[in-house]
Design brief:
This protein is mostly helical. It has helices spanning about 10-20, 25-55, 65-80, 85-95. The two termini are about 35 Å apart.
Length: about 100
Protein backbone atom coordinates (compact mmCIF):
# COMPACT_ATOMS: atom_id res chain seq x y z
CA UNK A 1 0.00 0.00 0.00
CA UNK A 2 1.30 3.42 -0.98
CA UNK A 3 1.66 5.93 1.86
CA UNK A 4 2.45 9.61 1.85
CA UNK A 5 4.51 9.78 5.05
CA UNK A 6 6.24 13.10 5.46
CA UNK A 7 4.58 14.44 2.33
CA UNK A 8 1.83 16.87 1.58
CA UNK A 9 -0.77 16.84 4.36
CA UNK A 10 -3.72 17.41 2.04
CA UNK A 11 -2.61 14.57 -0.24
CA UNK A 12 -2.28 12.32 2.80
CA UNK A 13 -5.75 13.30 4.00
CA UNK A 14 -7.19 12.64 0.54
CA UNK A 15 -5.48 9.25 0.49
CA UNK A 16 -6.86 8.45 3.95
CA UNK A 17 -10.39 9.45 2.92
CA UNK A 18 -10.20 7.18 -0.16
CA UNK A 19 -8.89 4.33 1.97
CA UNK A 20 -11.69 4.72 4.53
CA UNK A 21 -14.30 4.94 1.78
CA UNK A 22 -13.01 1.62 0.39
CA UNK A 23 -13.38 -0.25 3.70
CA UNK A 24 -16.15 -2.77 4.22
CA UNK A 25 -18.87 -1.35 6.47
CA UNK A 26 -17.97 -3.80 9.23
CA UNK A 27 -14.49 -2.30 9.64
CA UNK A 28 -15.35 1.40 9.61
CA UNK A 29 -16.17 1.46 13.34
CA UNK A 30 -12.92 -0.30 14.23
CA UNK A 31 -10.88 2.14 12.15
CA UNK A 32 -12.68 5.05 13.84
CA UNK A 33 -11.92 3.59 17.27
CA UNK A 34 -8.25 3.25 16.34
CA UNK A 35 -8.07 6.79 14.94
CA UNK A 36 -9.61 8.15 18.14
CA UNK A 37 -7.11 6.13 20.19
CA UNK A 38 -4.21 7.58 18.18
CA UNK A 39 -5.58 11.12 18.59
CA UNK A 40 -5.98 10.71 22.36
CA UNK A 41 -2.48 9.23 22.64
CA UNK A 42 -1.00 12.18 20.73
CA UNK A 43 -2.91 14.64 22.90
CA UNK A 44 -1.81 12.82 26.06
CA UNK A 45 1.83 12.92 24.95
CA UNK A 46 1.54 16.64 24.19
CA UNK A 47 0.06 17.31 27.63
CA UNK A 48 2.85 15.27 29.23
CA UNK A 49 5.48 17.34 27.41
CA UNK A 50 3.86 20.59 28.55
CA UNK A 51 3.59 19.36 32.13
CA UNK A 52 7.25 18.28 32.13
CA UNK A 53 8.27 21.70 30.81
CA UNK A 54 6.19 23.43 33.48
CA UNK A 55 7.88 21.38 36.21
CA UNK A 56 11.21 22.79 35.06
CA UNK A 57 10.09 26.40 35.46
CA UNK A 58 11.47 28.28 38.45
CA UNK A 59 9.01 28.96 41.26
CA UNK A 60 7.48 32.42 41.17
CA UNK A 61 8.94 34.07 44.24
CA UNK A 62 7.70 37.60 43.55
CA UNK A 63 4.70 38.90 45.47
CA UNK A 64 1.56 39.49 43.38
CA UNK A 65 1.03 42.99 42.00
CA UNK A 66 -2.03 45.06 42.81
CA UNK A 67 -3.43 44.30 39.35
CA UNK A 68 -2.95 40.57 39.92
CA UNK A 69 -4.63 40.77 43.34
CA UNK A 70 -7.59 42.61 41.78
CA UNK A 71 -7.85 40.00 39.02
CA UNK A 72 -7.79 37.18 41.58
CA UNK A 73 -10.47 38.88 43.65
CA UNK A 74 -12.64 39.40 40.54
CA UNK A 75 -12.25 35.75 39.56
CA UNK A 76 -13.12 34.54 43.05
CA UNK A 77 -16.21 36.82 43.08
CA UNK A 78 -17.27 35.46 39.68
CA UNK A 79 -17.02 31.89 40.95
CA UNK A 80 -18.94 32.84 44.10
CA UNK A 81 -21.74 34.50 42.09
CA UNK A 82 -21.89 32.29 39.01
CA UNK A 83 -20.37 29.03 40.19
CA UNK A 84 -18.32 26.80 37.93
CA UNK A 85 -19.02 24.33 35.14
CA UNK A 86 -17.42 20.96 34.64
CA UNK A 87 -15.05 20.03 31.85
CA UNK A 88 -17.74 17.67 30.56
CA UNK A 89 -20.20 20.58 30.30
CA UNK A 90 -17.62 22.62 28.35
CA UNK A 91 -16.95 19.70 26.00
CA UNK A 92 -20.66 19.21 25.45
CA UNK A 93 -21.30 22.92 24.87
CA UNK A 94 -18.52 23.23 22.29
CA UNK A 95 -18.85 19.79 20.72
CA UNK A 96 -15.47 18.51 21.91
Amino acid sequence: MKTNLGGDTMATRDELHKFIDSLPDGLVGEVLDFAQFVAKKAQSEQVARVMAAMEELPEDDEPPTEDELRAIAAAEESVRVHGTISLEEIKSKYGL
